Amino acid sequence: MGEFGHVYKEQYAVALFNSVRFEIEGGGGPQSQLLHRKNPLEDHSIFSGGLFQYLEGNKKWRNRFVFVADTYDVSFYENKVAHERGLHPKGTINCAGYKALTSMEEYLDLVSTSLPGVKAKVGSGPFVKGATQFPLILWHPYARHHYFCVLTEKEQTKWHAVLQDCVRHSNNGLSEECRVQTPAFTDAVRLHRQAQGHYGTWDMMCGGPPQILANLVMETLYPELRNLIGPRLKGKIQQRQRNWMLISEAVYKQVLSQTQAQYEALVQACEVETPRLDAALRTDMDQIITSKEHVSGKIRALVLPRAEQLLRRSVQPYVSSILEALMEPTSRGFSEVRDVFFRELVEVSKNTLNGGGKDKLGEHMEKISMLAFHPVKMQSCYEKVEQLSLEGLQQRFDVSSPSVFVQRAQILMREQMDNAVYTFEQLLHQSLEEKDQRGENLCKTIQCCQDRVLKKYDYDSSTVRKKFFREALLQIIIPYMLKQLAPSCHPDLPPFQELIFEDFSRFILVENMFEEVVLQSVTKDIMMAVKEAAVQKRHNLYRDSMILTNSDPDLHLLGESPSVDWAAQFGGGDEESDESPEGCGRSKWRRRQVVSMIKLDGMGPLPYESCLEVPGEEEEEEEGATPMEPEPNSPDNVQEIRYLINPVVEMVVPASEEDLAVLTNGTEPGMLTLEGEEEEVTLITTVVEEVHRKSLQWKSAPQEVSKQSITPYSLSTVSSGHTKGINQVYICLFSPLFKMREI
Q: Are 469 and 327 contacting, i.e. CB atoms less than 8 angstroms apart?
């Protein structure tokens, strides 16, 4: 941290100079056509639901209520009631740096790399026995691992998309709004790693500054500790892996606590000096720029010939292939964003026309208002970009993996989706305020707004992608060139520092100017490659010469308006206030946002099965609905876990004489028709008892089959005796998931 702090202070002054210069001189790229929402997740929770979590303390699985707020931190509670009461969570996970896995094999491969020479077999498992065949694992190279599981493959798919979204958002922890701190920090990290011989992209540039610094420390400390402690670990393979993971977690916690405190002190020290540096910059800006250009010219004369030679020999032949590898999956992803957005708007038009026009519009618009933050609906877009591969180029240009570029593209896709949705909302709301519309006229208005937004999306998508391609090419090529040029150029750089006035030496650094010269040498080739790709029109890119005429001159004024509360204005007056933690005081629409229940084919939602609350897909609760019971206790042994896979539920149905004869004569396992539906029966037990017609047990016997059912069943039937010619059969399906209820 001492070494990093010195580099950070230098880069802070340089970043402040660049920020003030940009403020004075202006500049920037093409203006965005779509509106940008400032706080898209304000008053919104991401999702919540139930999962089984493995507790390492007692080696048991527990049912936990999981809640993700707008920070994307994963918090888990004893049950839903504990969350609603505002109790502290059992734990919270910041997903930065994690990987979301869905198979034990993949997890074992990653764990086996933690201790060289120690590789566990898939069958044995590293001290974790899955309760079901659908695991969800959060793996981190240094921090604690977290184990979850669900009951169905559909649940696993949805939860995996949600956890991936949490990881994606948490990794993007550096704010682009900080025009000084963020550039200073990223440049300081890069220069610090380059001083240690690490060029190229870095997978652990994840999370906020303290987390990134902790990863920076662990990059060196982790292998040293492993070589020192690893050979001394005793016991079986699983025990050695477990002990090493506990040690790694403890060390990482200590490192993170120190980097947190020291980084805060470092930033505070720099901010104290900011007013003085800012005043000096604004006073002497012209002289500082002149001095920098003078020294930069001399460095360019030294470095440029060597850089151009390296460029022609080792870089130019690969630029087009790198660009093509980036463009193909990225363009497919942005195209999928457009298709998803289009399909949702078509659905809105159809539902509005068939469901009552303007009165139902609020409900449908509320479903898509947070479409960009719906992990499941956006998953098809993200999967397109995950196909990005730089195979054959990674080793040459020292690219550890394409994950850095994949996640950046996914973040941009989400931003463009939200911009498109927000712009559509504002345009539609403006049209509806001007005149009352219903039926076909309303659909035409929706269609008109849709066409305008799609045209703007195509232009902004092209602009964003071209910028992404240029930045990605620079991230791949510049570190390679710096690594190749450093041995021959660095010894000649120190004399140039003497040409800089002492008063300006805080803002002009020779190392930074050297990198700027290398950047300028390759920028022309990168710009030309992207321009040629746009001319070919293979990936729906606009030419640089094409500037979209602003057909909505007053549109930017709508960008200052708050998000439209569709439920309140067009939702038919259903505005029950909710003061629960999830609702933040918003209406009933805002309280739960989305309940995306995972259902088995042809069946209703399963009780206590995980449900995602993702903005955009809300189903309003019926008035007078029975509140959900507190979650049951989790299973404590293997036998009870097996019941989770083959549940047994208690049911009661009336039966005729023929049904009674069938049930009491040792029915074989197979298919049994209940309420017109065939259900699989694995076990039938028959008990016959005499019940008086006027007894309490007779009067309290349920007469209807429960609407919620789970297959396959284990049935236990209880039939009453013949009392005055009336037969009654009780079919009881028992399950440890639910509290037993007396019949």
A: yes
